[in-house]
Every structure is written in structure tokens, then in C-alpha cells.
């Protein structure tokens, strides 16, 4: 049914679906992991922090303490709905920080947990989420060692927000960081992309795609350990969460000042994800994942790394999807099924807000 627009139009209350880049206030796009998130950090937080800010702040910092190297990471979780097919905010809060540590090549050791709870939230809901966190921590082999709880007035939160911070140990000889991406590197993704974003969206909006799409949330440090055990020199690892695979690849390309050339037909995209994204007008490359990684590996090591990934439960669908090239530094391009080439740009914000 066509909406009646014959009356006066209140332009002041219009909402643009694309966040305005020059907005004087925070908009949802600032939390999407794309260009707006980067600008917020670069142009507001880093200058405000001044000399107290460590250069090159990333998902996980690498700190040298005595003779040991530690990875240190923190993350916050605001997913809506809190429970979705395949998981909940509880699993995400554990696995997300474990994975940030793993992407630095670390063995996760311990996590802190902090909760911001809205007044009126059912204790049974909080207990369910806390139990999921405990189960996920045991599964990942990490200890929950400290934490905090705050409560905000009813109507000033969204039931439960969670922050987790983690530390892990990096073994000698492991040097994994985006600056090491080099021309010739093979780009590998550990499995099917787009599952988490579509699972959350389907639950949030009550959509049905003929099958249940479940989130892929999982701790990835075991898969990373199997990759390192091959003796290969892993240059870069990243878990493509907010902004999806496209955001992660663009961030790596820009940091290392290299180009990335993908082959669209080589991307592992399940039929149900492709169909759902086609129906909703989404690009699977920009949809969040919570149990996948992308790796940049020297060409001589790519086959043995892929073999190790295929032998691990979380890497059975791993695939080489492209290469690192000296051309078009800082840019990601993809060869399409029709033989053309398209630019895979960094998203401005997030196609699906409140996704993790």
C-alpha cells in the first residue's frame, strides 16, 4: 500500500540511511567498524589522548614484559537481540576477545568481564547470558579473573551491555601484524562468510529464508595454533567482524600500503547467505562474521597452511580467495563472475548496526 504523502513533510525528522560524514554528533555509523569508526579514532580519540596514546592502536596490542610478549585486547558487545540462532551476547563476549588475542598469534590466558545492566532486566536473562559466558570460557580454555557491574536507570540502556578484556602470551618467533602484508602473499579465509550477520538480522526482523541460518561464533585460537604448527611464517591474521571481510581487507591494504586482488567466484559464500543478501540488497563481503579469520601467507607456505586449516574443525571450508599485489596500494579489487573488476571499498558505517 502506498503511503499518503500529500500532507506537509517534516524535513527535520527525516533520517538518512547513510550516516553523514560531517555530523556533529555520534551516529550509528561511528560504531560500524568502517571509515567512520576509523575517523572517530584518528581525529577525536588519538588527538585527545595525546602522548598517552600508543601509536598504531589496533584490536590487540603487543606488550613486552620482561622476557615475555603479551597480547592485550578489550572489546564491548551491544548485539540486538541478545540471543540469536547459534549463540548469544554471552558467547560473543568471550569468543570476540579470545579471537582478537588469537589474531596477534597469542595463546589466550585470562579475561575480565564488565556488565552494564538496565534497571528492570529480568535476572533470569542475565543468568542465561552469564552461564553462556562460563561455558564459552571453559571451551576456550580461558579463566574469568576479574570484573565489574554497573546498573543504569530504566530506559537509559538496552538490558545488557558487556565488555571483556583479555591477555595472552605470544611465543617466540611469532610476528603477526598488518604491516607485514607483502606483494605475492596469498589471501586465505577460513570458511563461509556472512553467517553471523544474517543470523542476527533474521532473528531481529523475523525473516525466514527457508532454512535456519546460525551464527558462526567460535574461538579461533586453536585454528591459529594449527596454522602456526606448520612452521609457516604467517604475516597477517584478522577476524572480519564489523564491516565484514571487506573492512578487514581494506584496513590491512591501507596499513601495509599494498593492493589486494580477489576472485569473487573463490569466496566461500553458502547459497542461503547469497540468497538472503540478494533479497535484502546486502553484499556478503560486508556482513559480519564471528568465527572466521582471514590470513595473509607467503606463497610458498600457502598450501601447507591450507592443509592444516582443512584438518581443523573450524577450517574445513578454508579457501584461497586472492593475492596481495604491488598495484593499486591501499585498494581492494575483485574480479567478478563476468570477468570485470570492481572496487571493494571500505564501508562508511555498518550495513547492520548492533551486530556484535
Distinctive features:
Phosphoribosyl-aminoimidazole Synthetase, Chain A, domain 2; 356 residues; five-stranded mixed sheet; 2 domains; seven-stranded mixed sheet; alpha+beta; disordered N terminus; 14 strands; 60s Ribosomal Protein L30, Chain: A; 28% helix
Layout of helices and strands:
Blueprint (H helix, E strand, L loop, with lengths): L34 H15 L11 E5 L2 E10 L5 E2 L2 E2 H14 L3 E13 L4 H18 L2 E10 L7 E11 L15 E4 L5 H11 L15 H8 L5 E5 L5 H13 L2 E5 L7 H10 L13 E4 L4 H9 L8 E7 L6 E4 L5 E3 L13
Helix pairs in contact: 2-3, 5-8
Describe the protein's architecture and organization.
This protein has 356 residues and is an alpha+beta fold. It has 2 domains: 58-170, 60s Ribosomal Protein L30, Chain: A (2-Layer Sandwich), CATH 3.30.1330; 178-343, Alpha-Beta Complex (Phosphoribosyl-aminoimidazole Synthetase, Chain A, domain 2), CATH 3.90.650. It is built from 8 helices and 14 strands. It has helices spanning 35-49, 89-102, 123-140, 195-205, 221-228, 244-256, 271-280, 302-310; strands at residues 61-65, 68-77, 83-84, 87-88, 106-118, 143-152, 160-170, 186-189, 234-238, 259-263, 294-297, 319-325, 332-335, 341-343. The strands form 3 sheets. It has a 7-stranded mixed sheet with strand order 9-11-8-12-10-13-14. A hairpin with a 2-residue loop joins strand 3 and strand 4. Helix 2 (89-102) packs parallel to helix 3 and helix 5 packs across helix 8. The longest helix has 18 residues, at 123-140. The protein is globular and about 55 Å long. It starts with 34 loop residues before the first helix and ends in a 13-residue tail after the last strand. 42% of the residues are buried. The model is unreliable at 1-18 (pLDDT under 50). This is Hydrogenase expression/formation protein HypE. Residues 58-170 form the PurM-like N-terminal domain. Residues 183-328 form the PurM-like C-terminal domain.
Amino acid at each position: 500500500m502506498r503511503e499518503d504523502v500529500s500532507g506537509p513533510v517534516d524535513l527535520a525528522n527525516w533520517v538518512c540511511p547513510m550516516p553523514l560524514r560531517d555530523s556533529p554528533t555520534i551516529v550509528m555509523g561511528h560504531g560500524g567498524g568502517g571509515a567512520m569508526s576509523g575517523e572517530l579514532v584518528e581525529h577525536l580519540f588519538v588527538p585527545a589522548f595525546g602522548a598517552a596514546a600508543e601509536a598504531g592502536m589496533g584490536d590487540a596490542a603487543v606488550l613486552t614484559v620482561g622476557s615475555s610478549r603479551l597480547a592485550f585486547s578489550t572489546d564491548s558487545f551491544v548485539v540486538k537481540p541478545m540471543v540469536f540462532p547459534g549463540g548469544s551476547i554471552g558467547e560473543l563476549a568471550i569468543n570476540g576477545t579470545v579471537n582478537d588475542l588469537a589474531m596477534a598469534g597469542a595463546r589466550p590466558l585470562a579475561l575480565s568481564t564488565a556488565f552494564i545492566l538496565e534497571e528492570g532486566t529480568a535476572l533470569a536473562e542475565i543468568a542465561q547470558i552469564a552461564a553462556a559466558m562460563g561455558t564459552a570460557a571453559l571451551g576456550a580454555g580461558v579463566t574469568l579473573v576479574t570484573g565489574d557491574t554497573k546498573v543504569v536507570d530504566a530506559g537509559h540502556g538496552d538490558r545488557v551491555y558487556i565488555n571483556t578484556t583479555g591477555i595472552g602470551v605470544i611465543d617466540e618467533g611469532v610476528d603477526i601484524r598488518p604491516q607485514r602484508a607483502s606483494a605475492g602473499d596469498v589471501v586465505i579465509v577460513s570458511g563461509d562468510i556472512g553467517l553471523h550477520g544474517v543470523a542476527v538480522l533474521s532473528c531481529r526482523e523475523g525473516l525466514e529464508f527457508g532454512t535456519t541460518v546460525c551464527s558462526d561464533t567460535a574461538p579461533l585460537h586453536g585454528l591459529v595454533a594449527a596454522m602456526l604448527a606448520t612452521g609457516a611464517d604467517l604475516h597477517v591474521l584478522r577476524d572480519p567482524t564489523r564491516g565484514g571481510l571487506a573492512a578487514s581487507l581494506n584496513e590491512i591494504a591501507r596499513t601495509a600500503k599494498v593492493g589486494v586482488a580477489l576472485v569473487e567466484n573463490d569466496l566461500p559464500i553458502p547459497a542461503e547467505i547469497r540468497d538472503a543478501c540478494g533479497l535484502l540488497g546486502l553484499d556478503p563481503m560486508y556482513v559480519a562474521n564471528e568465527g572466521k579469520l582471514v590470513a595473509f601467507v607467503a606463497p610458498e607456505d600457502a598450501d601447507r597452511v591450507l592443509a592444516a586449516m582443512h584438518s581443523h574443525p573450524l577450517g574445513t571450508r578454508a579457501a584461497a580467495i586472492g593475492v596481495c599485489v604491488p598495484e593499486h596500494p591501499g585498494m581492494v579489487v575483485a574480479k567478478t563472475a563476468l570477468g570485470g573488476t570492481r572496487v571493494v571499498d571500505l564501508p562508511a558505517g555498518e550495513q547492520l548496526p548492533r551486530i556484535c
